[in-house]
Amino acid sequence: MKVCAKLYFLSNQKKCLPCNCKGHSETCEDITGVCTSCQDHTTGNFCEICEDGYMPDVANHGRHSCQPCACPLSSPSNNFAEHCDRSSNILRCNCQEGYAGHYCERCAPGFYGNPMVIGDSCKSCDCNGNSDPNHIFNECHNVTGFCQNCWGDTAGANCERCAPGFYGDAISAKNCRECDCASSHCDMHTGECLPESTTVNLCNISCDECIWHLIGDLRASNKTLDQVKVSVLNISTGAAANDRLKYYNYTAQHIDFVGCFFSPSNLKRSDANGFVQKVLVTANVYNNIVQYIEEANITGLTTMDLASDGINTQLGFLKTQSENVFKESVSLRSEHFGITHFLVQHCLIILTEEVAEGTLNRSFNYCCKLSSSSPSMVVFLVENLSELVPELLDKLRVVEEKNQVNNVTTNIMRIRELIAQARSVAKKVQVSMKFNGQSSVQVQPHTNLEDLKTVTTISLFIRVDPDKDPIEDRFIFYLGDRNGRKDYMGLAIKNDNLVYVYNLGEEDVEIPLGSKPVSQWPPVFNLIKVERLGRHGKVFLTVPSQTSTDEQKFIQKGEAFGTDSLFDLDPEDTVFFVGGVPADVRLPPALSLAPFVGCIELASLNNDVISMYNFKQTHKMDVVASTPCPRYKLAFSQSRIASYLFDGTGYALINNMERRGKFGIVTRFDIAVRTVANNGILLLMVNGDNFFMLELKNGFLRLMYDFGFSGGPIVMESNSPKLQINDARYHEVSVIYHYSKKFILLVDKSHVKSMENEKKTLPFSDIYIGGAPSHILLSRPDLSSLVGLKGCVKGFQFQKKDFNLLEEPGTIGISSGCPEEYFMSRKAYFTGEGYLGSGAKISPFDSFEGGLNFRTLQPTGLLFYHSEGSDEFTITLENGAVVLNSRGTRVKSQKKQYNDGITHFLVASVNNNKYELVVDDKDKHEKKRPTAAPSASTVRNFYFGGSPSSSIKNFTGCISYAYISRQDRDIEPEDFQKYTENVQTSLQDCPSSDFLCLSKVGRDKSNLPKGLLGLNSDEQKPGETEDTPCYLSPRPRATRHAHHYGGTANSRQEFTDIPGSHFSLSLKTQSSFGLIFYTSDEAEDNFMALFLAHGKLVYTFNLGQQRVKIKSLEKYNDGAWHNVIFIRDGNLGRLVIDGLTVLEDRAQGSNVSWHVSSQLYLGGVPPGRAQRNIQRNSAYSFTGCVKNLQLNGQWMSSMFQTFGVTPCFEGLSEPGTYFSEEGGYVVLDDTFNLGLKFELVVEVRPRVASGVLLHVYTAAGEYLTIVVLCSQVIVLVNNGVREFFTQVTPRLGLCDGSWHRITLIRDANVVQLDVDSEVNHVVGPLNPSTKSARTPVFIGGAPESLLPEGIATRRDYTGCMRKLTVNESQVSFSKAALVSGAVSVGSCPAA
Fold first, then answer.
1. Taking a C-beta distance cutoff of 8 angstroms, is the pair 863, 959 a contact?
2. Rounded to an integer, what distance in angstroms lies between the CA atom of residue 884 and that of residue 898?
3. Which residues contact 1188 (CB under 8 A, 6 or more apart)?
4. Distance of alpha carbon 835 from the chain centroid
5. Helices (H), 884-990
6. Is residue 1113 packed enough to be buried (19+ CB in 10 Å), middle (13-18) or exposed (0-12)?
7. What angle do helix axes 308-330 and 274-296 make, rounded to 10 degrees?
8. Closest Cα partner for 1255 from 1229, 1291, 1228, 1283?
9. Helix 274-296 vs helix 243-257: angle between axes, to the nearest 10 degrees?
10. What is the DSSP letter of 30?
11. How far apart (Å, rounded) are the C-alpha atoms in residues 384 and 392?
């Protein structure tokens, strides 16, 4: 018998043919050729199929082979797929039980572990049967295995013990019972009562998960001890990132720490650092939208005469292109970030379409909901709206200028507000970027460059690796003019030294830090801080120890030449580049160096948290190829205590508190706070009409709550020293709700106060910490004056369960860490009665330099004082001029109007030759110093803002960023918190000009006529007086919680998120016709309305084609309050009036319910709505008041904007337009145009001393603004050449409760102001290129973003206005293009 050799088989023709086993078997069956004993993980008749867990790979020189599925890793120990295949070059994994994700890269619900770590796998959660069955998909943490939802009063990593306050056997008997102890503390096994003590921080509860994985990593990695030290410093605890970002950073750490298990393609596939990469990659996608917006030609679309078919053609093209962009974005999605990217992309498509159609309502509501869903969503939204689509914002301004329609203008302003809020979140992303020697990032510059003038401080973390990248001369950052001219500052590496460079207008200052060459830095993140205070500069370096908690600190200082001290930046040309610059940016010679190689993370700018992820654009930045370096966030002593920084704009939100602990007989909240602020929210819970609030007010803790008590809200407050906690130290504050009827307040574990109430359970599920969204605060008068916390929170507990505030999905705008600089008081507000004193050693008569910012409206005041015997050294304001006086030698400024309410900076110096005084770098004067014997060096106090002995009037106003040459230290900003004497001086931020106005008349109040200060509204407490110098109160008496509508056709309030159809309200009106309530779907096919017709109430809604209409028999426009309930229950409608009259009607057909899901309008509707469903004469706003609007028995709290709505004032009224204290403005219709030549006349009766009366601006940056400032009227003009102004101070002032007539005449560059026949004028520079253009005219105020920088007051006008004429034509506010906010058109509270 013929026998074939190996690799051959015997065919039917008795020939030996080669086996077709793909090289995976040496034998095959005769006749059939079927392969036997397939090797290399193959199977099948011809070894052509891969075994389970393997996939074919033909890349090996064309040879068929089977490689382990990379599910998630190609290592056999970490391949968790039952099957896998690669079709269309996409790997698809069919995971084993317990694994999830496209590549089985994470554990499924109910399992834990990290499949991305060699040797690790997913294990079943072990919670000892004590896990909440309602949370089976979140039983334990998917990496650590810590149980997250222990129930049955259990706790611990495995729910293995009874929770604090309970005792028993959690594992076998499962009988945890509550401690029967007064302190609520007992032995967890026996129940024996224990004294209350500090909660033990068990490591398996609070330690970061990365520490556990660190142990495994150290075992898995074969590293030397020195390598391990460096690696430990680079493990990120993820304390500042959310769960997803933490996971991806953790993955990156393992790549860097254990070894490079992935090729670059594998890294991209696993989407390490996907969060960061998507922000950068999507920039290219959205740049396409810019092009499509331009082609849609929004400018043309907003003109009133464009043919509708042209719109449709453009819109169709735009939608097609948007869909293409949308598809492109889908292709970028990863599993974790795809949904976010998908929604944001879709939001932008809708926005683009709707701008083309001329309305932004639906898009804004959609975008707004998206942005509030997660911080990462906001980052995406803001990057694409604000900067990646810059042309869109330009077109929004065109819409504002050319088509002043309510729904367009107001939503544009809301979008701008959203962008501003989102930028606040983006700038707090604490993640580094890695620069490859070609990349660069342009960071958003500081929002107010005026803040950087006197002091500029930038902190950042830098990591270089001298062993991998030899140290060369390289650029680090640059802040200054785009063309490298004017003032600038920057950082670089030169000659192996870190070098700080700055220029204030004369010569460069270079400060090299030679004490620690860069080549000697360890390959970890080092902390760098550069500081400029006037002419003085410093650079600091902090190197963390690799063996202990000790740090190495290095410092070098320098000084600019000449007298210039201010850092002047032009907002139009200022850029902030990190790592490198594009080719079109010109750097000054001192910084023209090669781009940086290494990792950089920005930390702060003037103590404000900043981030490179708040960028304008990036250049050649690829975080897949250049993975950001993870930073150990507790490496430096200033941040070793895990804490959260609140800057007054953000807040933490914990949804569903009871997922960690249940409300019980005793319910406890604990928070550790450190602050120097006077006011701020600590804890806030709101649910309809119920609320709970713990706040800081005037430095003292204050508790206020209402759970539907018969007597109204309960307030717990006192001026007890135990309640004052704004002393820059941490204080532990505990609030305990005992047996549902008593609140107990503890401070630093000591009982301070308690308050009893009716027995009611806590009706809340969510809690805000450190602040709250504006719509929550504005939902009720009790909360409207609250402000966000400025300070640090070390921890928050509910029922003794810790929460990581940064990991809560609802948290927005807070960051980790608690810098010591945040609690230094650099600013002080002086009332004219006080001063600050220090005993530090100075010698101003021999050698001295001192500088400070000041702001005041008083012409005279003592700024600085020092005396030695009869010799005095003073810096004062005298009749508006600044005067330096040393032993009788006086140096005086030329300008005499420094009491203008604007911040000014002065420097006074003394040397052997002269005395010198410089104000604002421009007003410079000096005098030769007379020969005198040097004074003896004695310790004498010096004072800011006044003194206890000087005959000069004490200062009234603000002093900030002061410095003086002291003998005990280098020049640095004075910390007023450390001064030994503080007499009646506030160390908070300087108040607005309105408070300065108050101070201006403060000591003269006894000379004012009786009643001048006025009394507060009906909410004011007895004995209090209103802080205002005006005769009339800023808050006329008004009905509590009631609002007045009318005056314009579209006066209204708008509400969102309306779940239900059972409404009630109270109504007072004398109108015969008008719309009271309206809601509908977007197409208005389904609607519900309440309106007036001939004085009768009409309630109507539809059911398909049928309508239910219920009309009262009596008239209710009698000026009295009436309670109205209107209900839709399926096809049944019910109208109940005053609890006596019940009217019903029913539609025929099925009983179909309808729940409102779109906006609800109260008092009126936007233009164009309700016309098809409501009779014409009732489809506009009614005139009258509404209070107590409720849905399903709960207060409506989701109101998000108002138009022409004020409090419901009581008492007499008179003709005019009233601008209420809540703020608002009117935009005139485009028939009124203030060009280069006009005459404007108006009569005003202010109730607050300062406010914006009128503002006009153009896209070219020109403006005209009229403000009232402390009984002065000021006109500020910028005609494109420069700013100029004139002002009039009437003899009798403006706040005497009388009407005052203001006339403004402009003729090009000449402006004349007449107030009550007192006249002043100014002649500005000519601008021959200026042309008269049609621009919006804002009356009574303007959006914050449109007002010029440096204006003395930015608040809206409060008071009455009447008889406004432009060029002798009467202005009717009822025909205005927009009435926004709290403005009552046609009616003013009488004086």
1. yes
2. 14
3. 1041, 1064, 1065, 1066, 1195
4. 35
5. none
6. exposed
7. 160
8. 1228
9. 120
10. T
11. 10
The partner residues of 378 in beta bridges, in order of sequence, read none
Q: Which two tokens stand for residue 854?
A: 């000041």
**Terminal CA-to-CA distance of the chain, rounded, Å?**
126
Contact 478, 575 (CB under 8 A): yes
1074-1080 vs 1132-1137, strand pairing mode: unpaired
Q: Closest by alpha carbon to 1099, among 1123, 1125, 1121?
A: 1125
Alpha-carbon distance of 362 to 1011, in angstroms, equals: 50
- Comparing CA positions, the residue from 472, 528, 531, 505 lying closest to residue 588 is 505
Residues listed for the chain:
1391
User: b/e per residue, 800-832, with b = 16+ CB within 10 A?
Assistant: bbebbbbbbebbbbbbbbbbeebbbbbbbbbbb
pTM to 2 decimal places: 0.55
- Residue pair 895/923 in contact by the 8 Å Cβ criterion: yes
CA atoms within 13 A on the CB side of 1283: 11
What DSSP letter does each residue of 318-340 carry, written as one string? Answer: HHHHHHHHHHHHHTT--TTTHHH
DSSP state of 1374: G
Mean pLDDT per block of 10 residues along the chain (1391 residues) reads 85 88 89 89 89 71 75 82 73 86 85 85 91 77 86 90 90 90 81 62 36 38 36 31 33 31 29 35 34 32 30 39 40 32 36 35 33 36 38 44 43 49 61 89 81 90 87 94 88 95 91 93 92 93 77 91 87 90 90 94 86 84 74 57 82 90 90 92 91 93 91 89 90 91 91 89 93 82 85 91 86 82 86 89 86 90 91 92 92 86 90 90 88 60 91 92 86 89 83 55 33 29 42 86 89 80 90 93 88 94 88 93 90 87 82 68 91 90 91 73 89 91 88 84 92 85 88 88 87 87 92 92 85 83 82 87 92 88 90 76
**DSSP annotation of 200:** P
Q: Count CB-CB contacts under 10 A for residue 1053.
A: 21
> 1224 has which bridge partners?
1381
* Structure-token pair, residue 183: 């302190």
SS3 978: helix
